[in-house]
Structures are given as structure tokens and as C-alpha cells.
């Protein structure tokens, strides 16, 4: 039931529909999605339409041009859209959400009027009346008085431009983009079709040799009256430049249907309208071929109207988001909850085409999958909570994600680390795939080849030479830690420990006792970096001495730090989720631990915007009597950092990791120890939460979380199906096999 | 019979074949071809293999790198190869022959050994042991001790590299090229196949918006052990540059099979050989599509060996060149004759693919032809003699050339002026297509739509506004000449006059008396530019006054000149081939005319290297008693300017125009008045010349030209089939309907 949201599209029956729908229909989960959340404060979300785990998406592109507050070329900027900016230069057709590095944000569509102008700084415009919701975005482009509306299917973006009378143009700019990779090819197939490719890559300014193409086919609802390709070549110098009157100048190749390549090229389709007219542009994309992009376009959007595509994608969003139904709580709360859940359903996203083909990782070969092949595995982030959320509410997707990771192992010999569109960016540290796979298996999602997975995990954990996943592994195995000869040695040791612990857990489940013991032991080696005086983890040099000078505070806010990655000693002090009880002992008991943990928050060392410490608010649950501190802290953090506004994310969403934290936190449970199928519990922020369970993986149809007093009050006891829990933890099995988890408040 | 030329290839049976063949077989016409002629002195020929009127050709590329005497970026250079140069950077797969502007000379194949090096200034090498003959070129590449051999079919080049033991590479450089157009796409399809395109265009640094793609598919006889694509991106500046450690650096994309685009890209195919090994690379090209390039390759070279392709193309050359058999004369004479004839059979060349598809002119659409669609119409040059030679000895080709011109009219609305691979470069002045068409029709080659042709000619001659062929036409019609408001007004007036005369001739043949009269009148309007005092043509200003200051000598050697195009008043003084008798009157009679004509030569104003005056040596034939001067002058010019050596052309071959001059001159006849089917006669340079006549167009099987005394001696009388001619002229009809034209010497 989407009627009450479709009113902005179907303006003709605006009033009738408005009253009718408000009177009859309740708001659906998808109606609570506010895509503007995370479009400021470096959240790096984009407000345009995307289908659940879509390959294609459309974002307004407003980060070029110095009139913008945040300009893409003047600083490190990872997103195609910033809410505070004001100057729009197009609508990019492939985008990443919530990442920390520039990539994609290319194939820019832009409606203009009057003479064709190809310089984005000239044809760009201010804009107004932005509307963003699940599967829909619209805006008025001030300079041209054009209304632009957008929706998307999984592999195609659909744009609809309403032009005033007169000369109108649709530009497709293949030069401008967020990625620093350049180069494109384009061919006008007919006055209503364009095909081409854009080279993208160099995520985080890494691995330029892994640049790769995104192919596209664009179909226009009306054939152009005139069309052409522009090309701005590089500039010659020296003698030749004297003869080239066109040196360095953009050229307009009118009417050409030949293939054109270059770093700065684009097409223009022009119309002469004698009244207000709309033009729809459907753009299918593919990472395999132009043919596949065309098939994606045809199969998904074929002869469908803009409205039909929108309705299908809206319905899909509603279906997905309805897997978790929340009742009670404020509209504001539901908005941030469902928007967060929406954000967790963007990445990992679909890589395979409609026909199942996809580019194999690092090999350039074309594979074929019968499942969904997923991509964009920001595993250093997502191993902590996002995959756990998928395993619970979207187990089929999580299963396909594991299968995708195993396909990568087959193709490339290694599990992924930070995979992006079939390239391995090797961004961040650690070996997080093992944690995700163990976690998935131990939650009962087992329809993948676990023996292969286990072999892959062992390879990453044991192959000392030429191991791209675990640099420094030899020293780690020999000494139990990485010395300062390696990058972020303390953080990396902690990450390896966490992975080793997951391997131990899976080894146990598979009856491999030797491995279990060996990896359990390895997982505790962080203890050698524990400085008893500071009660913090601290880097050691290669000869085993503490690294000097040591400032436990240095390294916050992404400063470089000799021991840590994106954090300091305080932010990493408790990041041993698999051995909190061991850490309690190291720190001198529960009281000392709780006091040290509190110090993280009191001294403002806690960083909500980055992953290492995001589970810390829940760690008070390990200290009997201090659990209220977790409840209080989680509520405070949600209040302070998550709001229904563009800056309503604490920072980079990290492909949904921050959002997954919010979803879990608002449900009152949190996967406290990645790999270990256990949740810790805090006060839910809705009266009733119903998680639909997939019958393929779970015996019950759903599990309900309830709070007794329908407030945010402190917890007295917790009951599962009427039986009191001994503490603030519940295993995944107990949870999904129960009917109701009731939080009874004071 | 190619045995005596094949010995350098089939080295195994070298000695046996050598003696066998010399003993048994005489040299065939193709054996006299020396492709090095015209590779110095700006002849702009290339020494590598090409089939008759081939689309593909291979040229050693030695014009990059400052160690070369003539470097492509340091001066205006129109050819991929210069004999004096020494530094080779590859072998280009599409090339123009004998043109005056840089274009094509791209898709550079280069064998190297050792580590892959992608900078041509580093991987380039000196070379030795060049061998060039019809359909074959070979060279040793000094730096790598690699023997490189080349041959070509009509649409594919075939390269054969003999590598020493060790690591070997075949580079395909898509960045480097003679054209200033940039941009390429490449995709490694498999370890033995590459497909892609290179953007070319901007002939004479004109019309950059008409840049167009040449597509290619390369197949290797051995799959590469390693392969990859390199890409050298442009350099970022500013803030971003700090983050891009790879900024501006070439990157090696190992093993990639994805599409790569960029201005400076290429592929490397590497081998590890444990003994001497050969690799053959076949490269099919197309101006339509990659698919067509692949089909061209398959259909023409399929499973054929290098030797088989060579033999086929050699045989084809021999068949073509045998259309004119010469006997007597020196080997040197036969060499320059058959090499010249070879040069006339390169352009216009084939544009259509094996399946008949070709790019339509200026429209980017794909057309299909059942004939041959020709391209590279340098008509300002070739209207003077090359097409006349084709009409005589290769009438089917000339017919297809006219049909190609009419197709262009259908496609584009205009006859071609200087057409190049389906672009109209508008190089040079005049409206020469009309002359070629009239000349062809009047010679009895009439299997084309003459009514359409006539209509096309009238459109070019009469449409006053928006006429791309005849700028300034309004003034020309009103005043009879172009004033100095227009470029090269005197030259252009002369060109328009010549075209108008041809239209008059065709009008007469078609019974269009009014038109005949009108255009005959128009064709004489150059007379208004005749300055009686100077006895020269001279520019007038828009108000009708003589342009001042006027220096009749200025403008030689391609200096700018207000009145003339690529020449001065002396060089244009007699360029009214249709009205020499009128000019004689203007100049004050035969004696004055002859004296003035002699002055052109005596004052060294005659330029053998450019077209306007190349018929002048024959003009003494118009003066009774002075005909010996033509005989003497022609012989002297041949001696001085045409030799069996690289500098053996007077300058740019102008797509065979200089060579056609030589062919006619050595046969002792010359098409003195383009459009008018008449030859003037001088002493033949062979004892006997047999021109095979195509039975489709001519009733006799052949026509023979003989000289009585088998010397270069002066002519006493001329007989056709025993009947004395009244003068030194013979109509085309009389000539081809005769059996023997005998020149009887003193």
C-alpha cells in the first residue's frame, strides 16, 4: 500500500489521494525511510533511489564547483552528494553509500535547456524542492525550470525530466565523476539509445592498476531531435600545438554514431518542445558488458513506466523492511530505525547481471552464478554487526554473501578483505571474512560448503609467505603480536586474534579439536601487548620492548598512530570481544575493568563514528550490577548521534555498519562478540519488535522483543517465553527458538 | 611466378630456389616494385606491405624519438617512416601513402625481449637489413635481435616475429601514432586475441570534430604466457595529486580482460621461449565495428600461413601491375615505372569490410555496398591524371570510384572534395569531382547513374548559399572570378573554370545544350584575371582592381600567397588545360606563349613537386614545331626527379598523382586536359608498352605503344595502326580502338 506516498508523483489526484490514504491506510515501513539521513556530517549516504542491494542507483551530484561548501577536488570527499552544498552538476548512475573513499559517482545525467553547454561549471545549477524517499527522489533545477524525478530497479536507474516549452537537452557526462579514475567510451546507437562504458576504480587512491569498467545502455522515451558527442582532448604542447587551432578545446561531434573514447567525453540529446514535455531516460548498468547492461535494462524496466518501476521497487523495499516490524515508539524513532535498516540493505550489493554473469574477482573472467553474487564487502566494518543482522533477519542474503565470499576464494585463492566490484582494495587491516563465515555457520545458516570455507580460513591464518590478507603473519605466529615493524601492530594483532577465535569456534563445531585449541590459544595473544601499568594495549618493537614514546591519546580523529589503525590506545583497549572475561582479569577484576571502561567515555575517548569501540557501550553488561550503564549509555548515544536529519549519523555509515548498530541497539539486543552467536541485551526502544524468521533457516515464524512498560526505563529482569534469563546475554539459538523476549523494567 | 622473390622468406631452400628460379623464370612486374622509392624527400610513401587498394597496411614507424632526423612532433611530418631515420618504435597497421598531412599511422605493434617496457623512447631500437618489396617487408631489430617480417591482405596485416630464446614480448601500443587525435579502447579477449579501437582523424589539423574510430582485432599464433594492458593516465594537479601516489604514472594492469580506455594505453603479450621461436600476429581492421574487423581477419587470413597470405597478395599485385606490360628499357626504368604504377594502386583504397559494410560519409550510419566502396579521394591532386590512368587500364576500379563518389552524394548531399575514411576534410580548393566523373563518362565508362551524377555536379556548381564545395560561388558567378576576399582567389577561379568546362563537356554528351553553353562560358572567366602586361593571372580585389603589391614569384615552396594556393603566379599561369588555345591568344600568339612557357622552366619557377604546373612540360605540344621541347623536358624531369632510390619522387606522391604522371610520361602519352578525353604524345621510354583493356568497357583486348628506334630520340611522326596522326594529340576513343600507336623517331 503505497498510495499515500505516491501522491507527490501523481499530482493530478493529489488531494483526493491524500485524504483517502491518510484516512484508510497506515504508514508502511518503507514510508518511514528518510534518505537524507546521513547526507551530511560525512555520513556519505546519498538521497537518490536504489533498490534493495541494487547495482544501479541515482544520486544528485553536487560536489563539483567551488560554490559548494565541500568540493570534491579540494579535499578528501567520498560522496557524490552533501546536503549543505547548493550547486548541482548532474545525477550519477552508480554510487557507493556510506564509504570513506571516493569511488564511482559517475555517468552523470543532466537536463538543461537552451544552447548545449558541456562544461559542468557552466551548465550546473542551484536546485530546490528536494523530495527523497525509498525508491524516489525529485528536485527542481532552478536554472532551467526542469523538474527531475528518479527511481531505480536493481540494475537500472530511471530518470524523468519535465521540461518547459523550448529547446531542451539531456547531457550524459562521462568525464565528471567522484572517482579519480578517468576514461570512457560512448556510442550513440540511435536517437533514442546510447551505449558505453566508464572506467572507475582507485578506491582510496589505491590499486590504480585494478581500474575496471562500468558498462551502460541508456534508452530515451523520446528520440532526440539532435544529438552528438563531445570530446575534450588533452592539450598538446610544443611545435604541434601551433598547428592545432583546436588544441585542448572541447569539440562537438554532431550527429556521430561512431565510437568515441576519451577522458572527458559526453553526449547530448536535444529536443525542441512546443509545450511542456517529459523525457524518461532508463540507464541499465553492468560490470560485465554492454550487452548485459542492455539485457538488465530490458528485463527489469522494459516497457514499464516510471511509476511502475517506482511501485515495484517501493514494494520491494516495503517487503524487505517489513522483516522487522516495530510498534510503539515515536515516528522519529521509526524513521531513524527504518532508515538505518534501509542503509543495511544497500551494501553488500548485487554484482551479477540479470543473466547471472559477473566479473570474477581480480581475474577479469566472467563467471555465472545461480544465487546472487554480492559485492562491496567492507568487512573490517561489517564483520562487527551488519552480517549478524543479516543472519538474523535476512539469512538467505547472508548465505549468498558467504557463498559470494567462497566464490572469490575459488577465483582468487583468498577470501575477500575489502572487495569492491570484483577488485580487492586491501583497505584496512585484519582477516575479517573468517569471522563472518564462522558467525553465519554457527547461527545455523549452513547451506554453503563449510569444508571449503574452513580451508580458506586456515589458508589465510596459516600461510606465512605471500599472504595478502595477513601481512606480518610470521611474526604474529612466532611472537603472538605484530611489532612496530608493521602497520598498526596492536590493532592488527587484535584483529588477527578475533579472526583466530572465530576459526577456533568453527573448528570446534567441525570437531577439529587440535585446530580449536591452537586457534583459541592464538586468539589470546593480544595479552602480550597489555601494559599492566597503563591497563591499556601498547605497541612493542621487534625486540620485544615497549614502543617509546607512547601517548595513549594520540591517534584519535584519524591521526596517524604507530600502534593503531584509525584510533588510539583507549579506543582499542577493549576490542577483544571474544575474551572480555580474560581482559577483566588482566585489568585486575570487574571493578577495575568497569572503571577503566567508564574512563573511555568520561575522557571523551569514545568514538561513535568508528568501528573499533562501537561495542563498548555494551561491555558494562559483563559486570554484574553495572548493566544499567550499558542501557543508559546506549540510549544516550542514540539520542546524541542518530537523528532524523541529514547529520543524523555519527560519521561514515561504513556501508551500513553504523546503521546496523542503531538497528540492533533500538531492538535492545547486540551481537557483542562477532563470530560467537550470542546477543547481549539492553532496553528496546520500541514497545514491540517482531522479527520475521525465514522458514528455510529457522523453525519459528518470528521472534518478538517486548518491553514491559513501554518506556526507556531501566531493566529489572529479562524473560524468554516467561522464563527469566540468568543475565544480560542470550544465545542466538535460544533467541530464535523462543517466541518472546520480554524486557521487564523497574 | 614469385619464386625468385620468395627466397628471403623460405630460407630453408634458399640456394636451390635461387638458381632454379633465375634460370627458369623471368622477372614479373611485381618484382620490379621498390617500396623504398618515395620514403625520403617527403615522398611520404611507406615501405611496408599493402594489398592493391588495401584498407590495412603495415609500416615501420620511425618518426618518434629525437634521435631521428625527422621527428613527428618537432615539425610537420605526414608519414610514419623516413628512410634517413634510425630509431624504430613499432609497426603501424593503418597508414596513408603519399599524403601531405599527418593521419593514421596508429596501432603500433612492436616485438621486444626481456622485461616489459612500455615507453617507446625506451623500448625503441635501431634496425638493420631492411628488405622491402611488393607485399613484403622485413627488418632486424638490433636491440632485441628479433627478425620482423610483414605482409598484408586487403583488410589485415600479418606480422611474423622470430624471437631468440628467452623472454619475449609483443607490444600493441595504442597511444603513439602519427595522427594528433588521441584515445583508444582495448580488451584482451583471450591470451591469443585482442580487440579494440583507436580514435584517428584531424587530417591536416582540420575538422577535429570528425575524429573517427578504426577498429581492430589481433590474433596471435601462440597464446601469451602473460599478458596485460598498460594505461598512462593524465596528471592530476592540486589537492588530489597529493593523495594519488600513482598520479600521472603508467600503470600495468596484469592479466586484465576488461575493457580499458585512455589516451595512452597498450597491451603486452609475453612469452618465455626456451629456443628460437616465431610468433605471428594477424590484425584485421575495420572502420565499422570490431565484429567486422574480426570477420575481415577470419575471411581473408583465417588459417593461412604468413607465406600463404604473402603469396596471395604478391600474386594480386602481379596481376594488377601486369595490366601494363613494358618491354625494352632499363631495369632501372622498369623499377621506377612499376613502383609508380604500384603507388597509383594504393589510394583511393577500400573502405568497405568483407561483408560490404562501410561508414557512410559524415553521417556515422553504416551502409552496404555490392561494389568496392573506395575512400581517400585526394581529388585536387588525382583529378589531373590518376583517375585518367584508372579509366584506361583499370576501368572497373574507376567505375567503382565514381560509384563511391555518387554514394557519398546520396549520403551527404555533396560530391567529395578530399574525402578520407568517410570524413570530408575539405582540404585544398576547387570542385574536382565533376572533372573526374565527366572524364570517366566521356571515356565510355558509363555503368553508373549519370543523371544523378550530373545533378550532383550542377548542385555543386550552382547552389550559391551554403555550398561547402565552392566557397565564394556567388562572386564567381557574378564576376567570373573570386576576389581577394576569398582564399587563393586566382587558383580557385581556375579550378572552378576547369570543373565548369567538364560540366559543359558532359552536358554536351547528355544533349543539354543550354547547360553546355552556360558552363562553357563560365569556364573561360579566368581570362578576366589575365594581366596583359605581365602575361600572368593576377588577383583582383572585390572592387575589380588589381591586387597590389603583386609579386609573381612570391608563393613558391608553400609560402602563403594572396592569390594562389600552394604556388605562385608563374606556377598557375598555364593552369587552364581546357583553354590552352584561348590562353595562346591572350598571350599574344604561339610564339609569345611558347616563350612565356619556356620562362617558367628557365626561371626555375616550375615545381615538379606540386600539381598546378605538372602538365606544363606537355604544353609545347600545342605549338607546332616546339613539340620537341615537350619531349626533351619530360625526359629531363623524369631523369632529375624520378629515380630508383628513396628520394626518387619529387616530393609528396599525393596519393599517386606524381606516380601517375611518371607512368603516363614513361608510356609517352599524357591526359593533357582533365575531363577532355584526349592524350598528348611524347617519346615513350620503353620499346613496347602493352596496355591490357578490360573487355567490359573496351572492344579491343589491348593497345600497344611502340617507339621505332628503341631510344629516347625525338619524334618525327606518330602513327596509329599505320596511319599518320596530324599532330601530337590523340583522342581516347581513337587510342583504345587502335591496335598500335607507333612513335617514329628521327
UniProtKB/TrEMBL annotation, chains A, B:
It holds the Pfam family Glyco_hydro_92. GO terms for cellular component: cytosol. InterPro entries: 6-hairpin_glycosidase_sf, GH-type_carb-bd, GH92_a_mannosidase_put, GH92_N, Glyco_hydro_92, PNGase. Gene3D superfamilies: 2.70.98.10, alpha-1,2-mannosidase, alpha-1,2-mannosidases domains, GH92 mannosidase domain. This is Glycoside hydrolase family 92 protein. Coiled coil: none annotated. SUPFAM superfamilies: Six-hairpin glycosidases. It comes from the Bacteria. GO terms for molecular function: carbohydrate binding; peptide-N4-(N-acetyl-beta-glucosaminyl)asparagine amidase activity. Monomer. The keyword Signal applies. Residues 1-26 form the signal peptide. Its cofactor is Ca(2+). Keywords: Calcium, Hydrolase, Signal. Residues 32-286 form the Glycosyl hydrolase family 92 N-terminal domain. One of its GO terms (biological process) is carbohydrate metabolic process. Residues 292-742 form the Glycosyl hydrolase family domain.
Amino acid at each position: 500500500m503505497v498510495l499515500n506516498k505516491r501522491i507527490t508523483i501523481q499530482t493530478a489526484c493529489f488531494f483526493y489521494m491524500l485524504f483517502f490514504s491518510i484516512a484508510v491506510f497506515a504508514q508502511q515501513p518503507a514510508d518511514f525511510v528518510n534518505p537524507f539521513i546521513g547526507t551530511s556530517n560525512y555520513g556519505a549516504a546519498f538521497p537518490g533511489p536504489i533498490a534493495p542491494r541494487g547495482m544501479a542507483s541515482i544520486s544528485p551530484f553536487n560536489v563539483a564547483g567551488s560554490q559548494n561548501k565541500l568540493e570534491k577536488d579540494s579535499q578528501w570527499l567520498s560522496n557524490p552528494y552533501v546536503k549543505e552544498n547548493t550547486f548541482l552538476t548532474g545525477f550519477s548512475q552508480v554510487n557507493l553509500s556510506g564509504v570513506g573513499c571516493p569511488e564511482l559517482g559517475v555517468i552523470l545525467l543532466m537536463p538543461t535547456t537552451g544552447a548545449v553547454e558541456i562544461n559542468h561549471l557552466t551548465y550546473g545549477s542551484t536546485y530546490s524542492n528536494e523530495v527523497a524517499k525509498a525508491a524516489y527522489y525529485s528536485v527542481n533545477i532552478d536554472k532551467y525550470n526542469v523538474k527531475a524525478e528518479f527511481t531505480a530497479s536493481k540494475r537500472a536507474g530511471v530518470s524523468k525530466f519535465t521540461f518547459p516549452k523550448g529547446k531542451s537537452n539531456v547531457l550524459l557526462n562521462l568525464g565528471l565523476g567522484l572517482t579519480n579514475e578517468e576514461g570512457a567510451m560512448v556510442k550513440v546507437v540511435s536517437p533514442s539509445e546510447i551505449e558505453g562504458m566508464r572506467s572507475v576504480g582507485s578506491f582510496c587512491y589505491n590499486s590504480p592498476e585494478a581500474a575496471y569498467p562500468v558498462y551502460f545502455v541508456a534508452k530515451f522515451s523520446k528520440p532526440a531531435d539532435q544529438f552528438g558527442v563531445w570530446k575534450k582532448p588533452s592539450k598538446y604542447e610544443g611545435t604541434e600545438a601551433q598547428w592545432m587551432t583546436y588544441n585542448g578545446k572541447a569539440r562537438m561531434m554532431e550527429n556521430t554514431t561512431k565510437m568515441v573514447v576519451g577522458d572527458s567525453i559526453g553526449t547530448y540529446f536535444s529536443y525542441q518542445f512546443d509545450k511542456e514535455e517529459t523525457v524518461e531516460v532508463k540507464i541499465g548498468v553492468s560490470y560485465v558488458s554492454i550487452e548485459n547492461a542492455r539485457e538488465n535494462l530490458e528485463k527489469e524496466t522494459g516497457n514499464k513506466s516510471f511509476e511502475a518501476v517506482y511501485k515495484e521497487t517501493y514494494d520491494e523495499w516495503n517487503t524487505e523492511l517489513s522483516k522487522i516490524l516495530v510498534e510503539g515508539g515515536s515516528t522519529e524513532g521509526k524513521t531513524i530505525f527504518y532508515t538505518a535498516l534501509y542503509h543495511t540493505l544497500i551494501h553488500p550489493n548485487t554484482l551479477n547481471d540479470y543473466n547471472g554473469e559477473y566479473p570474477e574477482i581480480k581475474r577479469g573472467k566472467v563467471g555465472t552464478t545461480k544465487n546472487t553474487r554480492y559485492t562491496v564487502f567492507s568487512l573490517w566494518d561489517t564483520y562487527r554487526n551488519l552480517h549478524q543482522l543479516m543472519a538474523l533477519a535476512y539469512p538467505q542474503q547472508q548465505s549468498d554473501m558467504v557463498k559470494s565470499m567462497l566464490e572469490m576464494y575459488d577465483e582468487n585463492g583468498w577470501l575477500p578483505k575489502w572487495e569492491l566490484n570484483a577488485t580487492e582494495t586491501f583497505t584496512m587491516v585484519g582477516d575479517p571474512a573468517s569471522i563472518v563465515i564462522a558467525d553465519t555457520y554457527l547461527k545455523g545458516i549452513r547451506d554453503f560448503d563449510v569444508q571449503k570455507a574452513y580451508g580458506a580460513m586456515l589458508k589465510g591464518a596459516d600461510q606465512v609467505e605471500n599472504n595478502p590478507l595477513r601481512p606480518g603473519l610470521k611474526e604474529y605466529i612466532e611472537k603472538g603480536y605484530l611489532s612496530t615493524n608493521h602497520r598498526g601492530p596492536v590493532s592488527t594483532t587484535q584483529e588477527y586474534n578475533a579472526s583466530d577465535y572465530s576459526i577456533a569456534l568453527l573448528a570446534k563445531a567441525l570437531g577439529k579439536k587440535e585446530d580449536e585449541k591452537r586457534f583459541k590459544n592464538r586468539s589470546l595473544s593480544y595479552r602480550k601487548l597489555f601494559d599492566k601499568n597503563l591497563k591499556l594495549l601498547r605497541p612493542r618493537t621487534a625486540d620485544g620492548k615497549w614502543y617509546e614514546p607512547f601517548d595513549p591519546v594520540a591517534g584519535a580523529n584519524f591521526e596517524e598512530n604507530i600502534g593503531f589503525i584509525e584510533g588510539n590506545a583507549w579506543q582499542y583497549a577493549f576490542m577483544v570481544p571474544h575474551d572480555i572475561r580474560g581482559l577483566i582479569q588482566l585489568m585486575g577484576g570487574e571493578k577495575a575493568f568497569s572503571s577503566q571502561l567508564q574512563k573511555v567515555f568520561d575522557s571523551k575517548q569514545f568514538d561513535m563514528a568508528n568501528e573499533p569501540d562501537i561495542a563498548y557501550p555494551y561491555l558494562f553488561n559483563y559486570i554484574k550490577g553495572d548493566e544499567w550503564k550499558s542501557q543508559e549509555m546506549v540510549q544516550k548515544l542514540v539520542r546524541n548521534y542518530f537523528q532524523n536529519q541529514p547529520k543524523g549519523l555519527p560519521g561514515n555509515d561504513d556501508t551500513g555498519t553504523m546503521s546496523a548498530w542503531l538497528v540492533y541497539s533500538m531492538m535492545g539486543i547486540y551481537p557483542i562478540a562477532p563470530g560467537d552467536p550470542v546477543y547481549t541485551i539492553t532496553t528496546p526502544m520500541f514497545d514491540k519488535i517482531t522479527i520475521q524468521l525465514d522458514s528455510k533457516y529457522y523453525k519459528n515464524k518470528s521472534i518478538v522483543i517486548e518491553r514491559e512498560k513501554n518506556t526507556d526505563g531501566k531493566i529489572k529482569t529479562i524473560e524468554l517465553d516467561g522464563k527469566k534469563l540468568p543475565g544480560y546475554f542470550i544465545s542466538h539459538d535460544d533467541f530464535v527458538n523462543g517466541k518472546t523476549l520480554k524486557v521487564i523494567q523497574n
